[in-house]
Amino acid sequence: MEQEKEWNFQGNEELNASAVSVRGVFNTLLANLNKQDQRPLLRLCRADPTDFSCFRTTPVAPDAIASAAQSFSFNCYPPTVGLLEARRAVAEHLSSDLPFQLSPDDVYITIGCTQAINIMISVLARPGANILLPRPGYPQYEARAACNGLEVRHFDLLPERGWEIDIDALEDLADENSVAMAIINPSNPCGNVFTYQHLKRVAETARKLGIFVITDEVYAHMTFGSNPFVPMGVFASIVPVITLGSLGKRWLVPGWRLGWIVTCDPNGIFQKTGVVTNIKNYLDITTDTPTIMQAAIPQILKKTEDEFFAHNLDIMRECADIFYVRCKEIPCLICPHKPESTLTVMVQMNFSKIEGIIDDVDFCVKLIKEESVVLLPGVTVGLKNWLRISFTAEPSALEDALSRIKAFSLRHMPKCHTSSV
Ligand SMILES: *Cc1c(COP(=O)(O)O)cnc(C)c1O
Question: pTM of the predicted model, to two decimals?
């Protein structure tokens, strides 16, 4: 008898590590849903506003797709860097907030901001290099870095300072192998917006450390508090900046997968250091953004009316107000900073006000079981025993979810507390 040959596949360990993704955790939590519960399942765990019907895109957007399709001009493969019309439209759109003019050559069209992240991590990954990432953050960065063998070092965002970056610690973290730092502004998961002064300090620190800044501005202009949105590109003459963005969140079409990478770099550092060549080389071997979708970008950017954005921000502001007031009534949760941008906020668990729950994951498992509400355990975004709440829901659904969380919290109060209530 011949010995059967063993299969050689051993699995990619890093892909298992990257199973710590928002989607992975959501699927795990969903398995705990009590199917007997007649109430609707309330999902406050994703950064997808279209989960609720009050958030609907402008008719300008489907019209643009329809006319692109009906023209029969965009059935071809696109250029790997993106359609010139689309690149020009994004360059013009972003330049209106910058002290210099972007050229279409600064723009690369990607399959959502997710692919933009993936490309930049791959471009930066060389053996021994490291990237500085925010904690809490957006797990896509960590997952991709792990798959590419790029070392991650975390700098903290400080809740007591409105989630500003711990800039002093940043300096201690970096070494001669640090290639870049990434920021997310406005912030997912914290819901804060960095000030002009803070961003300027970030730029100066990065310059001192000799590292590029990648800025994830998927929530650009989606602010409703006292800090206006300032693009990091404003400081590109201090330090070269890679801006990542997409239409998904602001235009309420995350499923359309339209994003971009933009080099904001009036001094031509990215050209000189080979970053630009690397991005192009990567795009030559990856999947293109569908041509028809790209062809719709110019019309969508030019024709969307301000009222569309204003209307959405009104609802989101209302959500933030409801959230902040109602969250204070929930004994076991502490919200250190009222959200001033979309779509998520971080709250800390107060263990002195809750019993029989061991950590954030346990909290989320029991919450979905007992109340059919889904929150994201903070550990998924880097902060154990915190929770990330997507507060931009239909206002009535948000009220409902917060009442259920309150009922859950009261039910799990330590006994000595309940008797005195
Ligand atoms: C949603 C999100 C993305 C992904 O954007 P897509 O355009 O949907 O790929 C990237 N970064 C942050 C911070 C996000 O919240």
Answer: 0.95
Mutation to probe ligand 1, out of 48, 115, 187, 249 (largest number of atoms < 8 A from CB): 249
Who's near 211: CB < 8 A, 6+ residues apart? Answer: 132, 174, 178, 179, 180, 181, 239
In sequence order, the 6+-apart residues with CB closer than 8 A to the CB of 160 are 336
Q: Ligand 1, residues 135, 188, 219, 297: which to mutate, most atoms within 8 A of Cβ?
A: 188
For ligand 1, say whether the CB of 248 is within 6 Å of any of its atoms: yes
Q: Could you name the CATH architecture of 60-303?
A: 3-Layer(aba) Sandwich (3.40)
Task: Kindly report the CATH class assigned to 13-56+307-412.
Answer: alpha beta
Q: Where do runs of H (alpha helix) occur along 275-394?
A: 275-284, 291-303, 306-327, 360-371
- Our answer on whether the CB atom of 184 is closer than 6 Å to any ligand 1 atom is yes
Could you tell me if the CB of 261 is within 6 A of ligand 1? no
10-residue mean pLDDT series, the chain (421 residues): 78 64 84 94 90 93 98 97 98 98 98 98 95 97 94 98 96 96 98 98 97 98 97 98 98 97 97 96 96 98 98 97 97 97 96 96 96 96 96 95 98 74 46
Asked if the domains 13-56+307-412 and 60-303 are classified in one and the same CATH topology, the answer is no
Closest ligand 1 atom to 115 CA: 9
